[in-house]
Design goal:
HepT; about 0% strand; 5 helices; about 130 residues
Length: about 130
């Protein structure tokens, strides 16, 4: 595993997180914004665990195959805090990809806005400091 792959994953993750932030700053009364936030959350979430997978491998810490393993290992080495929130995020990601109920989407939207975005951004800051990006 080389540093370029880790930097590429970090850059892709950073861009997705920025796009998520853009959608969160829009008027949430528009149903299209709700859908956009959910879609961008799903995409950012997927990139988060794949970034962790590459980061853990690059640093010789663990080889992971699933999001749950990635979050568990990253929490164990102190890269993530609030491990329970990452597991909640995993569960909500699974909910959004398998069913669509507007009431549930609104609840997840609020979680993304009030909790998940901040946690996802902390990951960016943590890895960014290490990469000095």
């Amino acid at each position: 595993m080389d540093i370029e792959k880790l930097e590429d994953k970090f850059l892709n993750y950073s861009k997705a997180l920025s796009r998520l932030k853009e959608s969160l700053e829009r008027d949430e009364s528009d149903d299209i914004v709700l859908d956009a936030v959910i879609q961008r959350f799903e995409f950012t979430y997927e990139l988060s665990w794949k970034l962790l997978k590459v980061y853990l491998s690059y640093n010789g810490l663990a080889e992971v195959r699933t999001p749950r393993e990635a979050f568990k290992e990253a929490f164990a080495v102190g890269l993530l805090d609030e491990g329970d929130v990452w597991i909640d995020m995993l569960d909500d990601r699974n909910r959004t990809s398998h069913t669509y109920e507007e009431a549930q989407a609104r609840v997840i939207y609020e979680k993304v806005k009030c909790k998940y975005y901040g946690i996802l951004n902390k990951l960016k800051e943590s890895i960014g400091r290490e990469l000095e990006v």
